[in-house]
Amino acid sequence: MKRLDTGSAEFEAGFVALLADRETESGRVDKPVAAILEDVRTRGDAAVCELTSKFDRLPLTPDRLRISAEEIDAETAKVPQDQIDALNVAASRIEAFHRAQLPKDMEFTDADGVTLGQRWNALDAVGLYVPGGKAAYPSSVLMNAIPAHVAGVERLAMCVPTPDGVLNPLVLAAAKRSGVTEIYRIGGAQAVGAMAYGTETIRPVDRIVGPGNAYVAEAKRQVFGRVGIDSIAGPSEVVVVADNQNNPRLVALDLMAQAEHDELAQSILITNDTAFGEAVAAAVETELKTLTRSAIASASWRDFGAIITVANWDEAAKLVDRIAPEHLELMLDDPKSVFAKVRHAGAAFLGRFCPEAVGDYVGGPNHVLPTSRTARFASGLSVYDFLKRTTYIAADREALEKIGPAGVTLANAEGLEAHALSISARLGNS
Amino acid sequence: MKRLDTGSAEFEAGFVALLADRETESGRVDKPVAAILEDVRTRGDAAVCELTSKFDRLPLTPDRLRISAEEIDAETAKVPQDQIDALNVAASRIEAFHRAQLPKDMEFTDADGVTLGQRWNALDAVGLYVPGGKAAYPSSVLMNAIPAHVAGVERLAMCVPTPDGVLNPLVLAAAKRSGVTEIYRIGGAQAVGAMAYGTETIRPVDRIVGPGNAYVAEAKRQVFGRVGIDSIAGPSEVVVVADNQNNPRLVALDLMAQAEHDELAQSILITNDTAFGEAVAAAVETELKTLTRSAIASASWRDFGAIITVANWDEAAKLVDRIAPEHLELMLDDPKSVFAKVRHAGAAFLGRFCPEAVGDYVGGPNHVLPTSRTARFASGLSVYDFLKRTTYIAADREALEKIGPAGVTLANAEGLEAHALSISARLGNS
C-alpha cells in the first residue's frame, strides 16, 4: 500500500506511478482463439461439442447443448428460499432503474418544414456469456440480462460452461428471473463463436455481452463487427473519499470489498486527515486477518492499494477525475457538493450508508462499469446497449427547395455528381 | 445487377447471396500498424515527423506539426462564398438536430428511500481523423466534429494528412466552423498513435473518431481500450423502396448516388412493379453514360446492385430488416406506415422529395451510420458518442436497512465476505 500526500514534493511522481501500475499486457491468445472460431464457423455443433468435451471434460451431443426447462426447474428448486427472495429484491430494483433509463423517441418539424426524428428499437437477439466455476456470479446474470429484457430484446441466449457437467443453481435461477430465453452449457471462445456465427442448434445473435477470461475476451474482439460486443473489462477499482467522521472499520471493509475481487483490483482512500488514514490502514490489517478471501485482498492492497491525503475536497475531486475510477464512494457530510465537481467515474455511492456493495447487488444501477480509467470515455452497461437508433428525415418539395441547394453546392464541391443530381433533378434544375 | 422476385422459387437463395456478396476479409496490416504505434508511443514527435516524411513526402519538424491559425485563415479565405454559405447551412442544421438529441440527467427517490440517478458528462478531449487527398470530405468533418462540440467536449483535435504539403481549404473551413480547437497535418496509423498516446506536442485524447483507410482502421482497433473509438465503417449501402408513381430517373439517381461512393457500395431497389423496376434499370444505364464517377458507379451497380420485386410493402419491410441497410429511402404515398414496420436501418428518408443526399449534407441527422448490416445492433454517430454516464446511489441508514439484507444474502452466496460485511457492519450486525 502506498501513502501519498498532495502536500509532498514526491506526490506527482507517486500518483502517476499509482495510475500506471496496473497496465498489463494481455496474454497473446489471438491465434488459438482464431482457430477455435474458424472451427465453430465451419463445423458448427460438431466443433462446439468436441471443444466442450476437451476443455470442460463434458461429452456432449447437439441435442444436449441446451439446458432443458426441466433441468433448470430441478436445479433452481435447490436454491434456498432466502436466496430466491434476495434475487427477487435485486432483480426488481435493477428492473425499476433500467426502466427509468429507457430513452424516448424524438421528432420535430423545423422552420424549413423538414421533419426530423430518431426512433429507438431493441436488438432482435442478444447473447449473454456467463463464466463457469468460481467466477460465476448470479448478480452478473441479473445485471447483464435485465437491461436487455427491459430494452425489449425478444431473444436472450445465455452460454455458461459447466465443467464436468456441474450446474450452478443460483446462476440458473438468476437467468430464469431475468428473462433469459435459452441457456447452453458451453463456454470459452467456442461459445462466443456459436453465438456470433450460429450453429445448427444455436441461432446467431446480434450482440454478445458478459464477462469472461482472456479467451472469451479475445473471441469477442475477433467477432466484433459481425456482432456488437460490450467493452472488455479490466481489473476493478474503487476510490473512497472519506472525512474523519467515519468509522475506520467501515472504510476498511469497503476498500477490502474491492480488493477481494482480484489481485489486480485497486482500492484507494482519499482523506483530508492523515491520522484517519492511518486508522483505516490499521483497520485493514485487522480485517485481513479473518477475511475468507484474505490472500487475494492482501495481495491487491499490498500491490495497488493507496491512501492519499489531500488539503481539501476540491483537490480530491481533481484526483478522482485523473483516476476516473470505476467506483467512487463519497463518505462525507455533503457528498453531493463534491460529486457535482467530479466528471469521470463509472458509478458513485453517496453518503456514509451507501457502500459500493449495495451497487453490486441491490441498488438498481448496473454493476458492469468502465474499469481501468476508461470512465473517461465509457459508461456502465445500460438499456442503451440493447437499443439502437434510426434517425429519419421527411421533406416535401417546398422543404427541399429550401435546404436542397446548399446540399447541391457541397456535393459538387466534393465531386459527387450523382449526389448533386439526386437533389437538383427533384427541383427541376437538371 | 441482380433481378429478384419474392414470388420466384429462386428468391431465397438469390437474396442470401446478395447479403453475403460483400463480405470481404480486411487486409492484414496488423503488424506494420503495431510497429508504427510502438514507434510513436516510445519516440513521440520524432517518430511522427519521420513517418510523415516517409508516407506523405512532407518533411516536418515538431513545431510545424500543428497547422497555425494564420495558415487556416489564409486557406479558408480561398473558399468560394457559395461554398462557405452552404457549409453554414449544413453546420447550423446539424447543430440543431444534435442539440435536440442531447439527453437529460435523471434522478428519482424510490419507495425504499433510495435516491438513484444518472448524470451525463462530456468527454474532455476527442481526436478527429480526417482522410487526406480525394477521400477528404468536408461534410464528414462537420458530421464528426459538431456532435462532439454540441456534447460539450472542450478539446477537439483533428489530424488530416497533407500529402506533399497540400492543404484542403474546404476541409479547414469545415473544421473552423465546427469548433475544432487544433489541427495537425499528419495522417495514417502515426496520427492515431499520436492522439492515443500523446507526444511532446500533441496531448492525448479520450476518444478517436472519423473514417480512414485500412491502416487507420487497424490502428484504431489496436488503441481501443486506452481510448474509445467509433465503429469501423464498411462499404456503404442504400435500399430504395419505391412504387410506380415515381419518376424512374430520380430513383436511378438515388441508386447511383450510393454507387458512386465506392466499387463495394450496394444499391438496392425494392418495388411492387416489375415494369417500374425495368424502367429504373434503363434510367440507370442512361445516367451511367454521363456521370463523372461512372466507372466506380458502374462497377458497384454491376457487382452489388439489385432490383427486387415484392408483392406488397409488408414484404418489403421484412426484407429491409434482413438487409438492415445503412440508408433507407421510402418513396411512397404513405412512407410513415411502412417505416413503422421497419426495425433495422441506420437512417431513413421519407417521401418522394427526400433523397439520401439530403442526409449526407443538410438534413441535420448524422451521416456517419452503421454499414454492412450492423444497423441490427449499432446506431449512427451522435452526441452519445461524446458523452458518458455516471450512475449514482444515495442511501441513508433507513434506506440501507430496507435494501441491505438482500445484498448481504447475495454477497455471501457469491462467497464475497467483505462485500457482505461492508453492508452488515453498517447495520450493526457484524
Automatic annotation (TrEMBL), chains A, B:
Alphabetical list of SUPFAM superfamilies matching this protein: ALDH-like
Q: Which residues bind substrate?
A: 236, 258, 261, 327, 360, 414, 419
Q: Provide the cofactor list for this protein.
A: Zn(2+)
User: What is the purpose of this protein?
Assistant: Catalyzes the sequential NAD-dependent oxidations of L-histidinol to L-histidinaldehyde and then to L-histidine.
Recorded E.C. number(s)?
Answer: 1.1.1.23
Supply the alphabetized keyword list. Answer: Amino-acid biosynthesis, Histidine biosynthesis, Metal-binding, NAD, Oxidoreductase, Zinc
Q: Which InterPro entries match?
A: Ald_DH/histidinol_DH, Histidinol_DH_CS, Histidinol_DH_monofunct, Hstdl_DH
Q: Enumerate the residues binding NAD(+).
A: 129, 190, 213
Where along the chain is the active site annotated? Answer: 326-327
Q: Which family does the similarity line name?
A: Belongs to the histidinol dehydrogenase family.
The record's Gene Ontology biological-process terms are: L-histidine biosynthetic process
Leader peptide range in chain numbering: none
Instruction: Give the source's domain of life in one word.
Output: Bacteria
- Pathway, per UniProt? Amino-acid biosynthesis; L-histidine biosynthesis; L-histidine from 5-phospho-alpha-D-ribose 1-diphosphate: step 9/9
Does the keyword Metal-binding belong to this entry? yes
Query: How many cofactors are bound and how?
Result: Binds 1 zinc ion per subunit.
Q: Which GO terms describe its molecular function?
A: histidinol dehydrogenase activity; NAD binding; zinc ion binding
* GO CC terms of this entry: cytosol
Q: Which PROSITE patterns match?
A: HISOL_DEHYDROGENASE
Q: What is catalysed by this protein? A: L-histidinol + 2 NAD(+) + H2O = L-histidine + 2 NADH + 3 H(+)
Q: Which residues bind Zn(2+)?
A: 258, 261, 360, 419
Specify the protein name: Histidinol dehydrogenase
